[in-house]
């Protein structure tokens, strides 16, 4: 039995979906004792992305670890919308940047733009900095350590504010997979109703937008109506975009 076949069996018996695919990735990244250890961690449902230490998102590759949310295909819809919507020469903010994937992939596809990426945690911001350098956009990305729930210092400097903020309710977090529970709780928990960050960003960061500026948010599949109400309260128009599964996933407020 080959190592890869053995790893596939270990993962399949542990109930890992796509065991053959994941076994191949592990066998490409590790060998010998390191491979056995990696397989054991994955069989215990530790996230594959953290084991590999990197993951693809949009057209880029990112370093990932337990200080960031794992980049997911659903979030690519946020990047796609930003690339299409940003005006020429735009300057934008990415709040709760995590790995930096939203800001970095947007910058990589729009070389005429620049951005500020903000996160609360130094280790996470350091990770975003490494990813910006790795993907060649560090000269156009400023990194700031700040709490997006607080008032920003800037005024009318951004053409857009992008964010994939924490938006999951605590009752939903309890039912998440073992893999997701290894991701930072602070990147998941969005308050009792999941809307704390949306409210704070709209209340406090709207002053940062230039006239005609806009917000782009990733949202939970069941949060579009709540965002419509928030948009109405702020006198903004809302457009909802769906993900690959047909669920509401990104909202544009302008």
Topology at a glance:
Elements: H1 3-13, H2 19-29, H3 32-43, H4 48-52, E1 54-57, E2 60-63, H5 76-85, E3 91-95, H6 101-109, E4 114-119, H7 122-134, E5 141-145, E6 158-163, H8 170-173, H9 196-205, E7 209-218, H10 224-233, E8 238-242, E9 248-253
Parallel strand pairs: 3-4, 3-6, 4-5, 6-7
Antiparallel strand pairs: 1-2, 7-9, 8-9
Helix pairs in contact: 1-2, 1-3, 5-6
Helix content: 25-40%
Strand content: 15-25%
Q: What sort of overall outline do the alpha carbons produce when their principal axes are compared?
A: globular
Strand count, sense and closure of the main sheet? 7 strands, mixed
Task: Note down, in words, how this protein is organized.
α1 (3-13) packs across α2 (19-29) and α1 runs parallel beside α3. 40% of the residues are buried. The longest helix has 13 residues, at 122-134. A seven-stranded mixed β-sheet has the order 5-4-3-6-7-9-8, with helices on both faces. A two-stranded antiparallel ribbon has the order 1-2. The chain contains ten helices and nine strands. The chain has helices spanning 3-13, 19-29, 32-43, 48-52, 76-85, 101-109, 122-134, 170-173, 196-205, 224-233; strands at 54-57, 60-63, 91-95, 114-119, 141-145, 158-163, 209-218, 238-242, 248-253. The chain is an alpha/beta fold and 254 residues long.
Jot down its keywords.
254 residues; alpha/beta; seven-stranded mixed β-sheet; two-stranded antiparallel ribbon; 10 helices; 9 strands; globular
